[in-house]
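Thread title: Can someone regenerate the structure for this chain?

I was given the following input by a collaborator and told the matching structure tokens would be attached. They weren't. Posting the sequence so someone can regenerate them.
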Amino acid sequence: MTTIKEIAKLANVSAATVSNVLNGKGGASEAKKKQIRGLAAQLHYTPNTLAKSLKRRRSKTIGIITEDLTVFNTPEIVDGIDACCESSGFDIIIGNMRLFKKYNNDFTDTEKHQQLLDKVAASLMARQVEGMIYIGYHCREIAYLPNRAAAVPLVYAYCFPCDRSIPSVIYDDEKAAYDMTNLLIQNGHTKIGALCGPFDSFHTQTRLRGFQTCLFDHGILYDSRLTLFGDWSREAGRQLGGQLIQSGVRAIFSMSDEMASGVYDYCADHHLTVGKDIALTGFDNREISLAYRPSLTTVALPLYDIGAKSARILLDEINGTKAPDRHYKIPCRIVERGSVCNLQTAEP
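Best answer:
Regenerated them for you:
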């Protein structure tokens, strides 16, 4: 790798002059500046950012700990973090715990989780990160914290810690579920089935609360028999969605696009048409929501915004400004498509 000293030797100037020119500080004639910059480009000179960090005692780098980089929500959150950091002159380093690949859908906080987190956090700290963002792959309360987290500011994204003094950024599940239920009611539906994830899921509980609150506000009696719990999968959607339809439901609020896709499967097998015979909504705005005809009305998650907000909080804390509110909920957006029929105008 080319060094400043090598460029200085070729340009017949001091290393300090080369450094000043490449850092925009002047210190040479225009002809010499042009020569130095030309040599740097020709020799593919790359600044030693580690040396700069040691000199100024700041790395201008933050660490990102992902529970699993392959889960659908994580890349967009990372992109939001990266964009915010880039605009502030910070770099990012990612440490991936790979929890989903190792433990599937087991969200239990175990000693193994703690050991893995400590290992990833220690690796990031060794790279002199000035702060860390922890990204969950399923929103829930996290019991464990990095052992060395106290050394730098820490923010949780798409999850929240037991230690409520640490900032967190999630999205508003409850309000999104309320708005989606309200959309179905506005289209004349009062017998609405809820296709839920696992009962103990944070997402399930908050979305179910929004669903129930909306029914109450419209004077519609909640029927627990029309609330079924699955595992977020397409097959669960096919089986449970079929049970709801057989019970006379003509509108289904599915808490995931994957389960909603199973309802499409059931309808296709039983000569029913979504958007005509059955009103159907999903959640997450996954790619699959556009694959069906009619395409699925769903909830778009503010993943990029979660990342950007998390990074902004962290950068402010690195610079000594503590966020006044420690816990943020970012609104979701309803994406209306063709899967919701109006009960008054739909054919029986």
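The chain has three domains: 4-47, 59-166, 173-300.
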